[in-house]
Amino acid sequence: MNGRTGESGFTLTEMTVVIVLAAVVMTGLVVFYLNSQALWLEGSAQAVTQRELTLALHEIGQHARSAASAIPSGDAHLDRRIDFFNVNNDPDSTFGYWLADSTLHSGYPYASDATRHDLGPVMQSRVTVFAVGADSRIVSVDSLGALTPQGSALVVSTSVALMNRSIP
Fold it and tell me: What separation in angstroms does the CA of 107 have from each of 1, 94, 98?
């Protein structure tokens, strides 16, 4: 029995079908991996930006609690600056936050030598909105928004009581 009926092997058609099926499966796996990686990167970027926003609100809150008064300034619908004053309203001890170059800056805006002492950006993310308000007892950050590196927008807000204010 040395006929061809006992020989084993693959035909060209069988090999082509296996290669095509393997290519389809591999393409699906690569697409799944790339989508998973992009989703993970976006989630990580959102977490970092959210943490920056939270830290900025915490820092603003600390200055609000120790201030005697706060004055927001800017246009009527979107205040882009807030200044915190001590009990004596001493300009040299005034601390402020303002939006400049699409970042939130902090520093001493009213020094006696007429210079602004900018301590630099509070956060690295690009800030899209900084709307603040204040009355005699409460400072409110109505919205502090920033973009993730991938372009997703995040917005946070808070209200803080002025704890060091003089009560008439």
Answer: 96, 8, 9
pLDDT in tens, 13-38: 999 999 999 999 999 999 999 999 99
Sheet hosting strand 126-134, strand order edge to edge:
126-134, 138-147, 153-161
Label the pairing between strands 126-134 and 138-147: antiparallel
Q: Cα separations (Å) of 88 from 67, 69, 91, 107? A: 10, 10, 9, 18
Q: Report yes or no: 108 and 96 within 8 Å, Cβ to Cβ.
A: yes
What region, left, alpha or beta, does residue 111 occupy, with left being phi > 0 and alpha being psi -120 to 50 degrees?
A: beta
Is residue 143 within 8 Å of residue 72, measured between CB atoms?
no
Question: Is the Cβ–Cβ distance between 105 and 122 less than 8 Å?
Answer: yes
pLDDT tens per residue across span 98-144 = 988 889 999 987 665 556 688 889 999 999 999 998 888 899 998 99
